[in-house]
Fold these 2 entries.
Entry 1:
Amino acid sequence: MSRTPTQRWTSTRAANSPWRNWAGNVTSRPAREVRPASVEELADAIRAAAAEGLRVKTVGTGHSFTAIAATDGVLIRPDLLTGIRRIDREAMTVTVESGTPLKRLNVALAREGLSLTNMGDIMEQTVAGATSTGTHGTGRDSASIAAQIRELELVTADGQLLTCSEKENPEVFAAARIGLGALGVVTAITFAVEPVFLLTAREEPMTFDRVAAEFDALHAENEHFEFYWFPHTDNCNTKRNNRSAGPAAPPGRVSAWIDDELLSNGVFQLACSVGRAVPPVIPSLAKVSSRALSARTYTDIAYKVFTSPRRVRFMEMEYALPREAAVAALREVRAMIERSPLKVSFPVEVRTAPADDIALSTASGRETAYIAVHLYKGTPHRAYFTAVERIMTGHGGRPHWGKLHTRDAAYFSEVYPRFAEFTELRDRLDPERRFANDYLRRVLGA
């Protein structure tokens, strides 16, 4: 008796319980979940879904706040598609399976004496999830994780495997590096890497007015600059990361635990819980929180400096603006909070990125600054996020694809010059919308 495609899958089951994202704000109930162990099994799963008229979505660790991965069809879990396929030391690239968590990739690369050039501040996501939504860190010259891709593999709606690079299927490569899961299922990614390097981090409190006045200079003088402003205060914490010849001088174990776990997670979690229960105390708590972390300098391998543990759960919205608009927009956010009854317990984060050439990258074609706002999980966020979004869209802002926003395809067609290029490619690769869901219908159109 011949085997059906379903019988070839390593793991498949009916979805008896709903899927929820990391923040808990998105829930969906897929018809079934599939855990393919190979590209062939994945292609079989997509063909079988098509035969049944089911949609297909892939989910990594669920760190998106939007419903970008939600489906009532087949949910692909890439847990078994992990690990490094190959390292090419002549080309200085690494090819990795799509379901590999960034934290495992970083450790494995460091063991081989290699590193990504830049990354975000958390490393829980899978490589495909992080790149498909445009995850980024901060950098004067080095861009998002997706901008470091040199080649990718994509299984399309008809079950075919495409290899995409600047030389092979270049029109797909131009879009699929940040593909939102709309063009197919990414199965492997080849990243540019470089020899492992050290970064010296300099963390320093500054006043809001000083950071605002010196923002352009701080950006120009440092390879990686970011800062956090604490609403209801005049206080910011700044972080400058620059390459170092060494020697390594990581934070002491006790001091690192105090700063990164006790204060940044434990005490902050408690302050957020108190603020959620008794909002009027938030401004007072903010004054204490903003002074809790003192200046420090340390040197370590790159991924240990770029990333930080994030154990306090929250809701987030982030907008990418032309970099020259960042300070004006932030001042507007500050004025809005001061004249409103809002009580905001989370700091506002500001980062930068150079322009890149990816069709739907938030930094596509322009020097970019990112302004991210957060609220503690369970805190009503609509009024705050709506007011901030109004400011950001006034500056032509582009929302992060994996973070909360209310924009739609009509808006994106105005702020992304290459939006039509992406949607035309989608029409060609997925004419039946096998990879669609409600979120993609809103942001890309029907």
Entry 2:
Amino acid sequence: MSSPVLDGLLTFRGKHAKTDQGGNPVWGDSVEIDLPRILSAEESAELRRKVAETAKRSSGQRCFYPLTGRVVSLCAKTYTGISFAAEGAGARFYRCTGNAPKDLSQKSCGCSRIDADALEGHVWQKVMEIASNSQKLQELAAEWIGTTDGNKSALTGRIADLDQQIAGMHASLTAVIVATAKQSKSADAIEAATAALNEELQQLQNLRAEAAEWLMELEESDRYAEDLRALASMASKSFPDMTPQQQAAILSMLELEVTITGPVPDGRRGGVPCTVRAWYAATGLDVPAASLSDEDWSKVASLLLKGRMGTVRRSVDAIFYKARTGNSWPDVIKETGATRQASKHFNAWTSDGTWDRVNAALADVERIPLPDPELLPPMTIEGRVDPSAMLYPEGRSRTGCR
């Protein structure tokens, strides 16, 4: 993409040449040398346009990963977003950083990739379920700080009792100081006589300050509840339509962390899309609900090459089974008794239209919708709900509840 290649022009001391304080070139004026053109002007313009389009497609939301650094793997490392253009549009995943250690002497952790769309959708759905449910939010808040009328009443009584004890302690200290001063004018004697009382007074004052702080938090519970209701209203209206970048901002405010607690389902550990399921999804066809009966097999046997010892029939059943489960070919072969020819048969039959004819011949068999594959491992999702941070980002803020 250089000027000599695209424009047939080589420039010495060009726009990046060293200049003095006055902007004059230190080593002389620019020198342009014409070269034989490799591409015509029209071809160069077309190449520039194509490259610009590719760059634009590669920098959109498709390659933004709001959960990067927020997902903790089984090996205690974090996941980061990664795309695989060679695997087709939408090939977005999260990969454990332990799989590509910076130190080449370290072994790869072996943690499996996780489908990005499925993981982001699942986590954001959980966030919306909590954030848009004011009752659930208030239950979390009450569990965290214990905002109940009984607590407020008990604290108010406790503070009043401590005030009486502190007042009594002050009176006792005054009496001791007066009595000691009459007997001895020594400051050391007065300090010794009041040491125990002063220590007890300090303890009472600390208890009073702690109780007052708790009461102040509880007295804010009404405003906190209003914030929670406002947050729930905002979440139900705006959260569903947020872009990945906006979601990332909310997740940052929530200090959200996802911890993987089990393995990624066997069928999708490698993160490679199932080609059989992709074919049924593209055609909009449902999947046969079970292996073919002898009667059903008779409808399609003539459309297929004959295989030794039922190999072709087992391949057909294996393909249907893979569509229903999304499992990897090695697992499908193990579970159905098919051979490695099954995947080759599927590729050949879809290429020459045979698989379309097989499905058309089986139009009357019982079918089920293409099931959603199990893409996600078990996980826990934790965060901190602080409504004031989201409602008043530049104003008041208080500690939230987890």
